[in-house]
Amino acid sequence: MRYFIVDDDTASRKMLKKIITEGDLGLVIGDADSGISSLSPIATMHPDVVLIDFLMPELDGIETIEQLRKKGYEGQFIMISQIVNKEMVGEAYEKGVEFFIHKPINRIEVQSILRKIAEQFRLQDSLLAIKESLANITPSKPIYKKQSVKEIVYSILSDMGVIGEVGSDDIIAMMEFLFDQHDSMTQLPPLKELYEAISTKSGIPSVNIQRESKAIEQRLRRTILMAMNNIASLGAIDYMNPEFEHYAPRYFDFQEIRNQMIQMQEGRKDFAKMKVNNKKFLQVLYLEVQEKYNQTPKNR
């Protein structure tokens, strides 16, 4: 199960992530501190379940659900709230919310609800398979249009669980810039030049370019660290996990991933000490995006 968390309370988001991760309930692929900032990543990533706070500034939980439905999101919602009254519950049910998590957050309650919703998904899949079998239905093959660079990068970062990290926007901007300027190259330009080019393109005044370049470098490092930790978590749970098998040896120093897996299995989690290679990550990402971008769209 893939989860996305929307809550303006940082502590609540961290607690929910911890409960999901430590309980082997699935993967948190992103989070947001407001309804507005959650719209784009959720509509793009299509998580299975969105855990969303009822009371938030600008867009509350109900309004955010309405906006996401209009954008075509068809997943499940779980409402998080300190206050539960009949009017709120009724409105939430009308919008398709079936489950509520009460604040302060309780581990047992969260685990129980997430297991129920996972079982609900499994039942729906089983019923659909039975229906297709009985009716001898062969699903029609959709025609897939060519993905944009942004969509491809979103998909890869989503697999790594870092779409919610601030550096993900920098990574997407770098890939789009590289494809605009050098869509057939095999080697990246020096990272310093790339950071400066992205800073300039975003409208940063020339006197602040150096400072913004340093900030990009730090955001990138933080995002890659989180990706390494997430991939190591997948490997620690299931060494044959397809995302782990694909990303761990390609994008990172595998020994660093392996060391982190050992720490997790021993109950220690200090991923800040992992060595990060920004150049390797961006180089491999660029080549993979290039390969997927140049594939001919076809039925599958």
UniProtKB/TrEMBL annotation:
Q: Which residues form the Response regulatory domain?
A: 2-118
Q: By its UniProt entry, which PROSITE patterns does this protein fall under?
A: RESPONSE_REGULATORY (PS50110)
Stored Gene3D superfamilies: 3.40.50.2300
UniProtKB keywords: Phosphoprotein
Q: Which residues carry this modification: 4-aspartylphosphate?
A: D53
Q: Which GO terms describe its biological process?
A: phosphorelay signal transduction system
Transcription regulation recorded as keyword: no
Protein name, UniProt field? Response regulator
This chain's source organism reads: Psychrobacillus soli
